[in-house]
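Changelog note: in this version the structure field was regenerated for every chain. One regenerated record is shown below for reference.
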Amino acid sequence: MVDITQKQSTHRTAIAQAVVKVSRQETIMAIQNGTVPKGDVFSMSKAAGFLGVKKTADLLPDCHPLPVEHCAIDYTIDGLEIAVEVMVQTFYKTGVEVEAMHGASVVALNMYDMLKPIDKGVEIHHIKLLKKTGGKSDIHNG
């Protein structure tokens, strides 16, 4: 692990995205109508995403355990694509971009798992960091 003992704590935010693409409009309708056999896709996936954010340091050896002070998960449907956006905040010595990307990945994987019984063509695309603030550098990728 990188030595962060001499770094100062600052307010840090990261926003990451994953895109889940389904193969049929019926899948989108099942999500919206709450008729997916495994349950409420958005609620279950949000819970999985929160766990993913919190457990990042347990799974990635170089990530520091850090206090997650806020996490928000939102969804936007555009045609057959569902954009998942995960925002994580902390006041700490190191950033939360990996936590945000890990959370977005876990949300997408949970959606895949819940949707596979009704749609064999589900795909996960574009897991990426959209924005990072705090520390020495800020990144805005839009």
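Spot check on this record: Residues 19 and 107 are 10 Å apart (CA to CA). The mean pLDDT is 95.
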